[in-house]
Amino acid sequence: MQTELTTRTGNQGGQELVFESRYATSPNEVKGMNTDQLRQNFLIGKLFVADQFQWVLSFFDRYLTGGIMPIEGPVTLTTPDQLKAAYFLERRELGIINVGRSGQVVVDGERIDLDYKEALYIGQGTRDVQFISHEAATPAKFYLNSTPATRNYPTRKVSRTDAEVVELGSMETANHRVINKLLVNSVLPTCQLQMGMTELKTGSVWNTMPAHTHDRRMEVYFYFEVPDNQAVCHFMGQPQETRHIWMQNEQAVISPNWSIHAGAGTSNYTFIWGMAGENLDYSDMDFCAITDLK
Question: What Gene Ontology molecular function terms does this protein carry (predicted)?
Fold first, then answer.
């Protein structure tokens, strides 16, 4: 069972990129998938290659997940042929979180410094975006999420101090964590894209418990700060028909709207969640009791 649509490596506008499209899948299809098929459909294994955009387009809400690690000077955001657009953000918005060393994003000529774990929102209609690392030996790593958009909202940087911060869980349940709401409607306006970052406290390993689904939104999880020789087990599927995917540092996973999305690591870690769909209500969740998971 293979739902991958296309994978293309090419040069567009002088810029190397890899662009992959993946079909949306139903719960019935996922029930019959083996380990390799689950990984082919939902795991995004490589996001940071020197001076080369890595893009995966999911047909769930046409969500784009990508990454760029600039080394040899500025790298310009080019428009993959598959978007059928005059420029990348003609009908899209873009969220960026830097998970590497310090860098800079140039937005229609405006230079914006972006340090580790700082976020940047760029609105629909922006024509020129460039990515720069301050030091080639210690490059920035810009994690990118993009969704369709219908109107322009202003470009805005969101630092750690600008975020809406919520502390949840406890050591007793191994899920003591800090949620940093960065690109969400309680912080700034967006069309549908929302992004944030959850940091697990030392000694805690579980995220997003109790598990939940939300038919109105899909998500992508990006796991990082996973220590060497450690891993995270990401759980997905319907609450009574769960599956799992083992993940390494700096990998992402697509979470359909009908699926739970939770993880447990062999160490504490950090993950970035991105969402898109019908509403911007962060609390719109259909919870499943932990004892009802199967």
Answer: 4-deoxy-L-threo-5-hexosulose-uronate ketol-isomerase activity; zinc ion binding
